[in-house]
Protein backbone atom coordinates (compact mmCIF):
# COMPACT_ATOMS: atom_id res chain seq x y z
CA UNK A 1 0.00 0.00 0.00
CA UNK A 2 1.38 3.40 -0.99
CA UNK A 3 2.35 5.97 1.61
CA UNK A 4 -0.62 8.15 2.46
CA UNK A 5 -3.08 5.45 1.38
CA UNK A 6 -5.13 3.27 3.69
CA UNK A 7 -7.88 0.68 3.49
CA UNK A 8 -11.26 1.36 5.08
CA UNK A 9 -13.22 -1.89 4.95
CA UNK A 10 -13.10 -2.79 1.27
CA UNK A 11 -12.66 0.85 0.18
CA UNK A 12 -9.28 2.46 -0.41
CA UNK A 13 -8.71 5.98 0.83
CA UNK A 14 -6.03 8.51 -0.12
CA UNK A 15 -4.60 11.73 1.17
CA UNK A 16 -4.75 14.73 -1.14
CA UNK A 17 -1.25 14.39 -2.62
CA UNK A 18 -1.73 10.67 -3.28
CA UNK A 19 -5.09 11.23 -4.95
CA UNK A 20 -3.68 13.99 -7.13
CA UNK A 21 -0.81 11.76 -8.23
CA UNK A 22 -3.14 8.87 -9.13
CA UNK A 23 -5.44 11.23 -11.04
CA UNK A 24 -2.52 12.77 -12.94
CA UNK A 25 -3.18 16.33 -11.76
CA UNK A 26 -1.52 18.77 -9.38
CA UNK A 27 -2.56 19.28 -5.77
CA UNK A 28 -3.36 22.88 -6.70
CA UNK A 29 -5.76 21.69 -9.43
CA UNK A 30 -7.35 19.25 -6.99
CA UNK A 31 -7.94 22.08 -4.52
CA UNK A 32 -9.47 24.16 -7.31
CA UNK A 33 -11.86 21.34 -8.27
CA UNK A 34 -12.85 20.93 -4.64
CA UNK A 35 -13.51 24.68 -4.29
CA UNK A 36 -15.65 24.60 -7.44
CA UNK A 37 -17.51 21.61 -5.93
CA UNK A 38 -16.62 19.42 -8.89
CA UNK A 39 -15.86 16.63 -6.43
CA UNK A 40 -17.72 15.76 -3.21
CA UNK A 41 -16.17 16.74 0.13
CA UNK A 42 -13.60 14.33 1.60
CA UNK A 43 -14.09 12.35 4.79
CA UNK A 44 -12.47 14.13 7.72
CA UNK A 45 -10.48 12.37 10.40
CA UNK A 46 -9.25 15.10 12.69
CA UNK A 47 -7.23 17.43 10.47
CA UNK A 48 -6.69 14.80 7.79
CA UNK A 49 -8.89 14.73 4.69
CA UNK A 50 -9.40 11.26 3.19
CA UNK A 51 -10.51 10.75 -0.41
CA UNK A 52 -11.66 7.46 -1.91
CA UNK A 53 -12.12 5.74 -5.29
CA UNK A 54 -15.25 7.75 -6.01
CA UNK A 55 -13.17 10.92 -5.97
CA UNK A 56 -10.55 9.28 -8.18
CA UNK A 57 -13.20 8.20 -10.71
CA UNK A 58 -14.71 11.70 -10.73
CA UNK A 59 -11.31 13.31 -11.34
CA UNK A 60 -10.59 10.95 -14.23
CA UNK A 61 -13.99 11.74 -15.73
CA UNK A 62 -13.31 15.48 -15.44
CA UNK A 63 -9.96 15.06 -17.18
CA UNK A 64 -11.53 13.02 -19.99
CA UNK A 65 -14.27 15.62 -20.53
CA UNK A 66 -11.79 18.51 -20.52
CA UNK A 67 -9.68 16.71 -23.11
CA UNK A 68 -12.77 16.50 -25.34
CA UNK A 69 -13.27 20.26 -25.13
CA UNK A 70 -15.99 20.55 -22.48
CA UNK A 71 -16.05 23.55 -20.17
CA UNK A 72 -15.76 23.49 -16.40
CA UNK A 73 -19.23 25.05 -16.14
CA UNK A 74 -20.75 22.15 -18.09
CA UNK A 75 -18.78 19.65 -16.03
CA UNK A 76 -19.99 21.37 -12.85
CA UNK A 77 -23.59 20.73 -13.96
CA UNK A 78 -22.76 17.08 -14.49
CA UNK A 79 -21.07 16.89 -11.08
CA UNK A 80 -24.22 18.29 -9.47
CA UNK A 81 -26.31 15.69 -11.30
CA UNK A 82 -24.06 12.92 -10.01
CA UNK A 83 -24.13 14.26 -6.45
CA UNK A 84 -27.92 14.61 -6.42
CA UNK A 85 -28.71 11.73 -8.72
CA UNK A 86 -29.29 8.10 -7.95
CA UNK A 87 -26.68 5.64 -6.85
CA UNK A 88 -26.96 2.07 -8.07
CA UNK A 89 -29.08 1.02 -5.09
CA UNK A 90 -31.69 3.69 -5.76
CA UNK A 91 -31.54 2.99 -9.49
CA UNK A 92 -32.33 -0.69 -9.10
CA UNK A 93 -34.55 -0.26 -6.03
CA UNK A 94 -35.10 -3.37 -3.95
CA UNK A 95 -34.34 -5.65 -6.90
CA UNK A 96 -37.93 -6.14 -8.08
CA UNK A 97 -38.59 -8.79 -10.74
CA UNK A 98 -37.29 -7.40 -14.02
CA UNK A 99 -36.41 -8.54 -17.51
CA UNK A 100 -33.71 -5.88 -17.82
CA UNK A 101 -30.00 -6.50 -17.21
CA UNK A 102 -28.00 -3.59 -15.75
CA UNK A 103 -24.64 -2.80 -17.37
CA UNK A 104 -21.60 -1.55 -15.44
CA UNK A 105 -19.31 0.82 -17.32
CA UNK A 106 -16.26 2.89 -16.57
CA UNK A 107 -16.47 6.54 -17.69
CA UNK A 108 -14.03 5.64 -20.48
CA UNK A 109 -16.24 2.77 -21.73
CA UNK A 110 -19.28 5.04 -21.75
CA UNK A 111 -17.33 7.67 -23.70
CA UNK A 112 -16.26 5.04 -26.23
CA UNK A 113 -19.89 4.05 -26.88
CA UNK A 114 -21.02 7.64 -27.43
CA UNK A 115 -17.90 9.24 -28.91
CA UNK A 116 -18.49 12.97 -29.12
CA UNK A 117 -21.98 12.66 -27.59
CA UNK A 118 -21.10 11.98 -23.95
CA UNK A 119 -21.52 15.62 -22.99
CA UNK A 120 -22.20 16.67 -19.40
CA UNK A 121 -25.68 17.79 -20.51
CA UNK A 122 -26.50 14.39 -22.06
CA UNK A 123 -25.14 12.46 -19.09
CA UNK A 124 -27.13 14.63 -16.69
CA UNK A 125 -30.28 14.08 -18.79
CA UNK A 126 -29.69 10.30 -18.74
CA UNK A 127 -29.37 10.42 -14.96
CA UNK A 128 -32.58 12.44 -14.66
CA UNK A 129 -34.36 9.78 -16.71
CA UNK A 130 -33.07 7.09 -14.38
CA UNK A 131 -31.00 5.41 -17.11
CA UNK A 132 -27.72 5.99 -15.27
CA UNK A 133 -26.59 5.57 -11.68
CA UNK A 134 -23.23 5.38 -9.96
CA UNK A 135 -21.45 2.66 -8.04
CA UNK A 136 -18.01 3.66 -6.84
CA UNK A 137 -15.74 3.97 -9.86
CA UNK A 138 -18.40 2.67 -12.23
CA UNK A 139 -21.46 4.05 -13.97
CA UNK A 140 -24.44 1.70 -14.12
CA UNK A 141 -26.96 1.74 -16.97
CA UNK A 142 -30.27 0.25 -15.91
CA UNK A 143 -30.89 -1.72 -19.12
CA UNK A 144 -28.53 -3.42 -21.57
CA UNK A 145 -31.24 -3.33 -24.23
CA UNK A 146 -31.77 0.42 -23.90
CA UNK A 147 -28.02 1.01 -23.84
CA UNK A 148 -27.48 -1.07 -27.00
CA UNK A 149 -30.35 0.65 -28.81
CA UNK A 150 -29.10 4.11 -27.82
CA UNK A 151 -25.60 3.20 -29.01
CA UNK A 152 -26.94 1.91 -32.34
CA UNK A 153 -29.06 5.04 -32.95
CA UNK A 154 -26.15 7.36 -32.19
CA UNK A 155 -23.92 5.40 -34.56
CA UNK A 156 -26.58 5.90 -37.25
CA UNK A 157 -26.08 9.64 -36.84
CA UNK A 158 -28.97 10.47 -34.51
CA UNK A 159 -27.87 12.92 -31.78
CA UNK A 160 -27.90 11.41 -28.30
CA UNK A 161 -29.82 14.43 -26.98
CA UNK A 162 -32.68 13.60 -29.35
CA UNK A 163 -32.53 9.91 -28.44
CA UNK A 164 -32.91 10.88 -24.78
CA UNK A 165 -35.81 13.22 -25.54
CA UNK A 166 -37.54 10.42 -27.42
CA UNK A 167 -36.86 8.10 -24.51
CA UNK A 168 -38.56 10.53 -22.17
CA UNK A 169 -41.66 10.59 -24.39
CA UNK A 170 -41.67 6.81 -24.72
CA UNK A 171 -41.47 6.56 -20.92
CA UNK A 172 -44.76 8.46 -20.63
CA UNK A 173 -46.53 6.14 -23.08
CA UNK A 174 -44.96 3.04 -21.54
CA UNK A 175 -46.20 4.03 -18.07
CA UNK A 176 -49.71 4.44 -19.50
CA UNK A 177 -49.53 1.01 -21.18
CA UNK A 178 -48.29 -0.62 -17.96
CA UNK A 179 -51.18 0.96 -16.04
CA UNK A 180 -53.65 -0.27 -18.65
CA UNK A 181 -52.36 -3.85 -18.53
CA UNK A 182 -52.14 -3.89 -14.72
CA UNK A 183 -55.71 -2.63 -14.44
CA UNK A 184 -56.88 -5.34 -16.83
CA UNK A 185 -55.14 -8.11 -14.88
CA UNK A 186 -56.07 -6.90 -11.40
CA UNK A 187 -59.76 -6.74 -12.32
CA UNK A 188 -59.72 -10.48 -13.00
CA UNK A 189 -56.70 -12.02 -11.23
CA UNK A 190 -54.65 -11.66 -8.01
CA UNK A 191 -51.71 -9.25 -7.86
CA UNK A 192 -49.26 -12.18 -8.00
CA UNK A 193 -50.33 -12.74 -11.60
CA UNK A 194 -48.82 -9.44 -12.74
CA UNK A 195 -45.24 -10.73 -12.86
CA UNK A 196 -46.23 -14.05 -14.43
CA UNK A 197 -48.29 -12.39 -17.16
CA UNK A 198 -45.99 -9.46 -17.91
CA UNK A 199 -44.46 -11.25 -20.97
CA UNK A 200 -47.93 -11.17 -22.51
CA UNK A 201 -48.10 -7.41 -22.11
CA UNK A 202 -44.71 -7.03 -23.75
CA UNK A 203 -45.80 -9.26 -26.64
CA UNK A 204 -48.90 -7.16 -27.22
CA UNK A 205 -46.88 -3.93 -27.23
CA UNK A 206 -44.19 -5.41 -29.52
CA UNK A 207 -46.82 -6.68 -31.98
CA UNK A 208 -48.82 -3.45 -31.99
CA UNK A 209 -45.66 -1.35 -32.47
CA UNK A 210 -44.59 -3.60 -35.34
CA UNK A 211 -48.00 -3.24 -36.98
CA UNK A 212 -47.95 0.53 -36.41
CA UNK A 213 -44.54 0.75 -38.13
CA UNK A 214 -45.96 -1.31 -41.03
CA UNK A 215 -48.86 1.13 -41.39
CA UNK A 216 -46.53 4.13 -41.20
CA UNK A 217 -44.12 2.77 -43.82
CA UNK A 218 -47.01 1.77 -46.11
CA UNK A 219 -48.53 5.25 -45.79
CA UNK A 220 -45.21 6.93 -46.57
CA UNK A 221 -44.72 4.62 -49.56
CA UNK A 222 -48.22 5.45 -50.86
CA UNK A 223 -47.61 9.17 -50.36
CA UNK A 224 -44.34 8.93 -52.28
CA UNK A 225 -46.06 7.03 -55.13
CA UNK A 226 -48.82 9.63 -55.25
CA UNK A 227 -46.29 12.46 -55.33
CA UNK A 228 -44.32 10.75 -58.12
CA UNK A 229 -47.57 10.19 -60.06
CA UNK A 230 -48.50 13.86 -59.84
CA UNK A 231 -45.00 14.85 -60.94
CA UNK A 232 -45.17 12.50 -63.92
CA UNK A 233 -48.59 13.91 -64.91
CA UNK A 234 -47.27 17.45 -64.74
CA UNK A 235 -44.34 16.51 -66.98
CA UNK A 236 -46.70 14.99 -69.58
CA UNK A 237 -48.90 18.08 -69.56
From TrEMBL:
Cross-referenced Pfam families: MerR_1
Residues of the HTH merR-type domain: 13-81
InterPro entries: DNA-bd_dom_put_sf, MerR-type_HTH_dom, MerR_fam
UniProt keyword Endoplasmic reticulum present: no
UniProt KW DNA-binding keyword: yes
Keywords for this protein: DNA-binding
Superkingdom: Bacteria
PANTHER family documented for this protein: HTH MERR-TYPE DOMAIN-CONTAINING PROTEIN, REDOX-CYCLING DRUG-SENSING TRANSCRIPTIONAL ACTIVATOR SOXR
UniProt-recorded name of the protein: MerR family transcriptional regulator
The organism of origin for this protein: Streptomyces thermospinosisporus
